[in-house]
Amino acid sequence: MVPPLRKAQRAPRVAIVVFPGSNCEQDVLRAFGCMGVRAEYVWHHATDLGGFDAVVLPGLCNAHTHLELSYLRDEVPPAPAFVTWIRGVMKARRQRPIFSPTA
After folding, report:
1. Is the model more confident about 6 or about 84?
2. Which of 4, 22, 32, 63 could form a cystine bridge with 39, CB 3.0-4.6 A?
3. What gap in Å lies between CA 79 and CA 86, rounded to an integer?
4. Which of 21, 18, 35 is closest to 66 using CA atoms?
């Protein structure tokens, strides 16, 4: 548990970066508010964060999927339908698995 701020102590100021695909920023803002911390949203294009004591990047949706599939870059072409695309991903993974049983 975070100790309460003393009266003479300045509340820290926190930037919560918001960008397309982010989530949880409302939860982060609420959590900081419960701790007496001044938090505010900052759009991801902000270039001056000097007035803040800390910067928080909320979680990304499905970032793990993009990382896992990054080795297949340029091997699976875009498709007009998700099912067509995912079949291409499955085919590419069979042809080029991440871990080889002989390695």
Report:
1. 84
2. 32
3. 9
4. 21
pLDDT at 67 over 80: no
HEC per residue, the chain: CCCCCCCCCCCCEEEEEECCCECCHHHHHHHHHHCCCEEEEEECCCCCCCCCCEEECCCECCHHHHHHHHHHCCCCCCCCCHHHHHHHHHHHHHHCCCCCCCC
Can you tell me which residue has the tokens 């990047």?
57
Asked whether 79 and 85 are in contact (CB, 8 A), the reply is: yes
The verdict on pTM exceeding 0.90 is: no
Give residue for tokens 């991440």.
98
Would you kindly state where each structural domain of the chain is located, as residue ranges? 13-56, 63-95
Question: What contacts 32, CB < 8 A, 6 or more positions away?
Answer: 14, 16, 38, 39
pLDDT surpassing 80 at residue 96: yes
